[in-house]
Design brief:
globular, alpha+beta, 6-stranded mixed beta sheet
């Protein structure tokens, strides 16, 4: 595995205390390309994700397959992007195929060091031009008796669609997640007006990790000079100990989004 360099250090973590800790990361990888699609950077994305070494990784805009890129782009992986990224560190992978087109498909993925007990992708698209899904999985974390439910999503660009998708998310949680189970909902919310976030917090009694610790959502887009707060890590029955947007190099040279990192512990 690549070693940390001066421009890429692991986030500073507070001292451990009783109970399992969970490092999570959410990242819109822009289909493995840098901003404006100038360079294919999936190999470098894999290297830096391995340095962060999160227990659970929530990915958006992940290509499951693309024949055109496979024929034209140097160093295109033989496997899917999520399998390529997971290969050396994360033995458990779930993928939600959302947008399907003649050349291939893309969607959301969850990479985990801990085994899944189930996974399901739910279509929450509001119109044909933006195919969206809600990837819901549960996993067993050593030292924690309850299942951890995790949901990875990427919401619409338009506010009407985002609002409907938040209601779909709330319905899914109410019907499939026990009230005493720990829950993480992470991804690209496209919520630049912060309305979807307030609705989610009110209806599901969830807290956003960065907002809880720093008073506001993290600046995450565009990666070169972030001024929009689009990406989030929400949790319930979990306590946030740290949360940061990973800005600067090398992240500004990779996707158009910056990743969000958080360290969480389970509440009783």
């Amino acid at each position: 595995m690549a070693k940390a360099t001066p421009d890429l250090q692991q986030p500073t973590l507070p001292p451990s205390h009783t109970g399992p800790r969970l490092k999570v990361l959410s990242y819109n990888i822009h289909k493995g390309f840098s901003m404006y699609n100038r360079r294919f950077v999936l190999e470098r994305i894999r290297e830096v994700l391995e340095i962060i070494d999160a227990d659970v990784v929530f990915l958006q805009e992940v290509l499951g397959a693309h024949r055109g890129y496979a024929e034209k782009v140097n160093n295109w992986p033989e496997s899917s992007q999520f399998e390529y990224l997971a290969d050396r560190l994360w033995p458990h992978v779930a993928y939600g195929k959302n947008a399907v087109y003649s050349a291939g498909h893309h969607g959301n993925a969850i990479l985990s060091k801990h085994g899944f007990t189930f996974s399901e992708n739910i279509d929450i698209s509001t119109h044909k031009l933006e195919r969206r899904g809600l990837l819901h999985a549960a996993l067993k974390v050593p030292g924690e008796t309850r299942e951890l439910h995790v949901i990875c999503l990427h919401l619409d660009l338009y506010e009407y669609g985002r609002r409907k998708q938040i209601f779909d998310l709330c319905d899914r949680v109410a019907s499939h997640v026990p009230s005493d189970s720990p829950l993480i909902v992470a991804g690209d919310f496209n919520d630049w007006r912060h309305r979807a976030g307030r609705l989610l917090e009110a209806r599901l009694a969830m807290s956003e990790a960065h907002k809880t610790l720093h008073g506001t959502y993290a600046l995450s887009f565009p990666s070169g000079f972030p001024f929009l707060r689009l990406d989030r890590i929400y949790c319930r029955k979990l306590h946030a100990h740290s949360s940061d947007a990973l800005t600067g190099k090398p992240w500004s040279e990779l996707s158009d989004h910056t990743p969000l990192f958080a360290e969480l512990s389970f509440e009783p």
